[in-house]
């Protein structure tokens, strides 16, 4: 999974090292919580 993230980051021109843990938290904060999903639900998903 981490190798795929690194490949995608390189293709997109992202210089930050990406890894699964970072992607998981980014999903939780930017996609779910920002769209009004309750924290209790997010904690069960991620």
Automatic annotation (TrEMBL):
Keywords: DNA recombination. The keyword Cytoplasm does not apply. GO terms for biological process: DNA integration; DNA recombination. The keyword Metal-binding does not apply. GO terms for molecular function: DNA binding. This is Tyr recombinase domain-containing protein.
């Amino acid at each position: 999974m981490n190798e795929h993230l690194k490949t995608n980051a390189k293709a997109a021109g992202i210089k930050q090292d990406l890894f699964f843990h970072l992607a998981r938290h980014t999903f939780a904060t930017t996609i779910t919580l920002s769209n009004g999903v309750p924290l209790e639900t997010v904690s069960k998903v991620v």
